[in-house]
Amino acid sequence: MDRALAGREYASHLTDADLRLLAPAAPGAPEGGGWLRGDPVALLRRLEDPGTFGTVLGQGPGDGPRGWAVQASPFLIFALLVQRAATELASAAHVPERTGPRQRVPLFDAPALRDFLADTARRLFLAELLASFTRVASGRYRVRVAGRARTRRFSELDPVRLAGLLDAVPDAERPGVYRRLGDVSLFLTGVFPDYVTSRAFGPVDASRLLRAAGLPGPQRERLAAGPAIDLLEHLGARWYRTACELAPVRTARLAVAGDVAGRFRQARRVLNHLADGYLLAEGQSWFTPPGS
């Protein structure tokens, strides 16, 4: 995805109020921000300007982002937070990694995270992912089991139940389910890794996920016995790839998902950084924990 296309994709998510917040206050600049919608390159420059974060979200020393107070959309807030991560990681020597609930060790993989965030399309991907989980879809569907119709529930925050949709939807809709399975795997491991580590899956649920992924027996046994984070990392990358393989048309957005599949751990670690510093910071939580 080239920068001009990425800029247009950003613009498609932004509200008129967002554009007014982003428009530079300079002599001779048009009033409002509507002109940014027609100039995707200028829009990207505004999003990437380190000063835009403080201007829009009003963060000063010791302050948290005040996004909702300035009428910024969730997507704009997350786009600026992802860009903020790129700025912070540009000079980081190491980034903390979780080894257990509330336990951190430094990993010297900041160059890999910087490389991930260097691509405009991947930054857009993370902003879209976060914004998509501000409202979580759930509901019921019908499936036949042993010749009898059964009603099952699904939730986008429950990968086990979401995977059950693969047995109910027509073939044409399966790539979309696989894509969303990749999304929820990345979201949970990135934003709620402590939940994944301590409470996400029992042995039965892990086995259901591994069977739904179509993995061979020995590989299922190895992943089921390992950490839940590793399980979802493997499955999330596999589900993104499967969505790309089954889709009748490989769109530019789907191509980015395929790219992220090969960099799933880096994507997850960037989200961990954002969750620790902003998304779940004390007094400033942007998401409701799963199961609450």
Largest sheet: 2 strands, antiparallel
Order of helices and strands: HHHHHHEEHHEEHHHHHHHHEE
**N-to-C terminal Cα separation, in Å?**
37 Å
Counted by DSSP, the helix tally is 16
Number of strands: 6
Low-confidence stretches: none
Question: TL;DR?
Answer:
The protein contains 16 helices and six strands. With 292 residues, it is mainly alpha-helical.
What does this structure look like?
The structure is a single chain. Helix 5 (50-57) crosses helix 6 and helix 7 (110-117) packs across helix 16. The chain has helices spanning 3-13, 16-22, 34-37, 40-48, 50-57, 74-89, 110-117, 120-132, 159-164, 174-191, 193-199, 203-212, 217-225, 228-246, 252-261, 264-279; strands at 95-100, 103-107, 138-145, 148-155, 280-281, 284-285. The two termini are 37 Å apart. Strand 5 (280-281) and strand 6 (284-285) form a beta hairpin. The strands form 3 sheets. A two-stranded antiparallel sheet has the order 1-2. The chain has a two-stranded antiparallel ribbon with strand order 3-4. A two-stranded antiparallel sheet has the order 5-6. It is globular, with a radius of gyration of 20 Å. With 292 residues, it is mainly alpha-helical.
